[in-house]
Predict the structure.
Amino acid sequence: MFIEFLRLAGQNVLHRKLRSILAVLGVLIGIMAIVILISFGLSLKGLMTGQVSKVFGVDTFVIMDQDVMSRSHSGGMKEFGLNLGTLKGVEGVKTVAAIRQRTAFVEGGTNAEGTPQQGFMPVMGLSPELLTDFTAFTGDLMFEDGGRQITEADVDAAVLRRELADRLGVNLGDRILIAGEKSNEITATVIGILAASDEKEEKQGFGASMGSSTADTIYIPYATMDRLWPEGNDFLVTVVRILPGYEVDDVADRAETALKAEGSRVSAVTSGDITNVIDQMMSYINIFLGALAGISLLVGGVGVMNTMFTSVLERTKDIGVMKAVGAKNRHVMAIFLVESGLIGFLGGVIGTAVGLGITALGCFFINTFAGLPQGVAFPFVASPTLIVTTLLGAFALGAVSGLWPARRGSRMPVVDALRYE
Amino acid sequence: MSLLDLKNITKDYPLGQTVVHAVRGLDLSIEKGEIVAIMGPSGSGKSTLMHVLGALDTPTTGTASLEGHNLQELGENELVTLRGRKVGFVFQTFNLIQALTAQQNVELPMTFLGVKKSARAERARALLEKVGLGDRMEHRPNELSGGERQRVAIARALANNPEIILADEPTGNLDSETGATILELLKRLSVDEGKTMILITHDPDAAAIAGRIIRLRDGRIVEEARHVH
Ligand SMILES: Nc1ncnc2c1ncn2[C@@H]1O[C@H](COP(=O)(O)OP(=O)(O)OP(=O)(O)O)[C@@H](O)[C@H]1O
Ligand SMILES: [Mg+2]
């Protein structure tokens, strides 16, 4: 009998085209909004977890300041003290690369008037392992012609950006004075200049990956850093690769425990930890989206309810006739519920299709025109769970919104309904 | 036992502060196979009486029984089933469902009784053939003339092969010629199929097909006449 009711409902929907279209539209917009928001959320999550796993792989974790993953953390990285020897001695650790950062007095060349160019700048010491074993962290660095990256053999060498080179009045092969603590100081030769960053700043390597570097930073070899500031209490991050056959979480736990036992205020962060943070962030976003979705669905539902009240009123006579020829209350109820469910379902189907279409287009446009870093793309995610849930939800929304009108209609006394003009 | 039995029926409608006494004490028995015409001025209670006879409504006081079932004792769903099986209605304004085709309209009473699709379709087509609309089955009501619509309504009234056909001014919205063919059809059907028919009408020609004519005034029977054809 459901088929008959579906047909009856379908014909009623078609019979009052404009009104049905408007009600469908109300649901459609709500569903579309939800599908777009959630799909973009899924894309974003896909993008972030994709990036994380690309940088980390399954065999890498990092050591950071212990507050970095906590909720109260306000962004940016804090320096911490660490004994690299202890870290290297932890069972399962294969390679360790570290980045240290300090602010130092720096003096470059002279300007046109002969005034020396100097100032306080961040200086970063990079482990050679970082540049050889963890290229995913540094990204593709674009050097100007003749420039090169720091290697293990370098001692008094420096790499800096074009902007900073201009300000310090130096060029490839020129010398920079860097003053460390006490009377430690070096004169480093500029061996590489990173191409002007303009708007493509994100592409300029670990500055972005590490989330702290600015165009001001001067990069020097790690050993040189040690000479300027012998005390290693200025680590920004330490990257650790584990030996094959070990579980990254186990090694990370051991490393953290060992370092903390020595008083280091550090935390070992694996890709799983970051994914968890992303998941948690996404769950907050989802709650917010859920609230938005709820509101737009409520609006759609009220639209369906309004349409159904009109439909019931308009078909009062039909209700009387159907009851006269043997329709029970539940038949009348079912007919109207199927009708409103159908409106909801239609809104759901079209809304989901349009929403997914817009999301796909959006991803395409962002990937094509937004100038994302190389290899970074918004993946378009058409989640089957999302589709099925929204379709069922739209049908349920329609049916629930039709409940009250349908009940009203079904309870109308047959004689009153028949007399209705 | 009569097919239909009304004893001392009254029907009151509350209307604001007052009460409308639509039927004021009425006795009526109708036997199987009879054709009864009910006449009377507007507002005399004809439709109200028909609603009680057709188990659409229960009287305020008195007893009404259909084939021995006391209507007041039946629950709403039993009442629906009883009238679905036993009574077919024909209305002045045809009252077809606009969204459905002629055939679907005729199938509707069977649908509510849970008759299978194939059986339903077959019977609906046979009935439409019988009322002369074999070539109009897929038409919707607004694609049919008034006379054709009323014939669809008659086919629908016959769908569940009921004992009784109740027709409330079936020719009221038709021109006299079309009205005459509809009356002809109703009469033929009730004679051929042995249906009991109750015909509410203002039209003396319509009343002429009846074996008994009952006149109402102010909710009472004021005259009862038997015809011998
Ligand atoms: N639901 C109602 N509420 C109040 N009064 C009603 C109701 N239904 C009918 N009446 C009144 O009951 C009386 C009888 O009405 P009914 O419809 O039975 O008359 P009728 O004989 O069929 O008239 P007509 O020939 O115009 O169809 C009328 O006075 C009418 O106003
Ligand atoms: Mg009437």
